[in-house]
Each structure stands twice: as structure tokens, then as C-alpha cells.
Design a protein that fits this description.
The structure is a homodimer of 93-residue chains. In chain A, strand 2 and strand 3 form a beta hairpin. In chain A, helix 1 packs antiparallel against helix 4. The first copy, chain A, has one domain: Arc Repressor Mutant, subunit A. Chain A has a 3-stranded antiparallel beta sheet with strand order 1-3-2. The first copy, chain A, is α+β, with helices and mostly antiparallel strands and 93 residues long. Chains A and B meet through helix 1, helix 2 and helix 5 of A and helix 1, helix 2 and helix 5 of B. The structure holds a DNA duplex (30 and 30 nucleotides). Chains A, B: This is Winged helix-turn-helix transcriptional regulator. Chains A, B: Pfam families: HTH_5 (PF01022). Chains A, B: GO terms for molecular function: DNA binding; DNA-binding transcription factor activity.
Chain lengths: 93, 93
DNA sequence: TAAATGTTTAAGTAATTACTTAATTATTTA
DNA sequence: TAAATAATTAAGTAATTACTTAAACATTTA
């Protein structure tokens, strides 16, 4: 889970909205798609980007695929961000 | 400073490296450019994106332009991130 | 097993983004 | 004031990204 993939995944508005939706509970790909004015394959591709960045987890239940947040990966990004609120010159790589 | 501009600005590796450099102190455009294998106009354009997102501040001193971090804007992003580590369903818009 | 439903993959395209070199602007110094 | 230095703007291009529709795959139900 390269930090680059994380930021790339977060740089798209649609993907951030998908993450927002998932805060309120797990959803199937179809349930997510309903919220957007975009084709289902379009949403599926966004979900694929989020899954690759490990921001979400997918689990198949029958013909449905449930998506859920992977909150631990958000902490990776937080860690990167936090550097910029610390005193100058400390390197936390 | 739309959150979208912030994430778009952060989605590029070169721009994140520029921010990393500025953690250790203010630098001129030229000093920043030295650290990269890229033309100076290329770096200048990245600096422009960072400035637009208000992640950095630019101040001209003679013929030099000094760039510095604007740490307060990082907190905007932090606030967005923090939502995902809170209990489900709380909306902090 | 055929039809229906949910989802993803494939292939192509339009829009955006990250670069390049050349030209321009601003400032300092010989 | 001319030349040198610092930085940006302009214009063009290659690469990437975000979509679309059509096709394929997986599962359930009639």
C-alpha cells in the first residue's frame, strides 16, 4: 500500500464520496452506484482503485459484493499529514 | 481552498516531496528545483498548484521567491481524515 | 436449465495532467 | 544601461485518468 496509491485514490471526488457513504455502514457495489450519476462500470472501476489502495475491503456474499472501510489505512495518511504539524526538521520516515 | 484542490495537489509525488523539503525551512524556487531531476518551469508549475491549494505561501524578496509551508491548511485535510476513525454514522460536515 | 440479477472486464475515447523548450518579466550587478 | 540571474508564462505534447457502451462472468431464481 504505497502512500502514492493512497493519495491518488483520495484525489478523486467520486471516490471520496464513496468513502463517505461507507462511513455509515457497509454497502454492495450496486447500492453505492445508486448514489451517483455514473454508469455501474464507472463506479466499479473507482471501487477497484479504492480496493487497490486498501482504503476499502470487498467481500463477496452470493451474487453481491459488500464494500467496507478499512480505517487502519487512513491512519497511514494521517501519519504522513501529522509530520507537517510538528516542529521543523524532525524526520519521521 | 476547496478540499478537492488540496487532495489533487497532494496526489503528485513531486509536490509531496516539495512539501517535505519545506518542513526543514523556507526555500527559494531555485533551491527547490535543485532537488529534482526536472526543468525549473516544471517545478514552478508544481509550486503554483501548491500555492493555489494554499499548502504553501510565496513571498518575493528581491529577485527571489521564498516558499514556506502553510501548516494550517494541512489541518483541513486532517479534519477530513479524522472522520474515518470515528464511530459510524456521525456526520461532521 | 434458462432467464434474471449483480458485478466486473474489455476496449475505446475525451478530458486532464505532467512534462518539455522557448519566450517573457523582474531584479540585480558590472 | 547592458548583461546576468531568478522565476514565471506560453505553447505544445505525451502520458494518465475518468468515463462510456458492450461483453463476459457469477449467482440466484423461475
Amino acid at each position: 500500500m504505497a502512500i502514492n496509491d493512497l493519495f491518488k485514490a483520495l484525489s478523486d471526488e467520486t471516490r471520496r464520496k464513496i468513502l463517505d457513504l461507507l462511513r455509515f455502514g457497509d454497502l454492495t457495489a450496486g447500492e453505492i452506484a445508486i448514489h451517483f450519476d455514473m454508469s455501474k462500470p464507472g463506479i466499479s472501476q473507482h471501487l477497484s482503485v479504492l480496493k487497490n489502495a486498501e482504503l476499502v475491503h470487498a467481500s463477496k456474499k452470493g451474487q453481491y459484493v459488500y464494500y467496507s472501510l478499512n480505517t487502519t489505512v487512513f491512519q497511514e495518511v494521517m501519519k504522513w499529514m501529522i509530520q507537517f504539524n510538528q516542529s521543523k526538521g524532525e524526520n519521521n520516515d
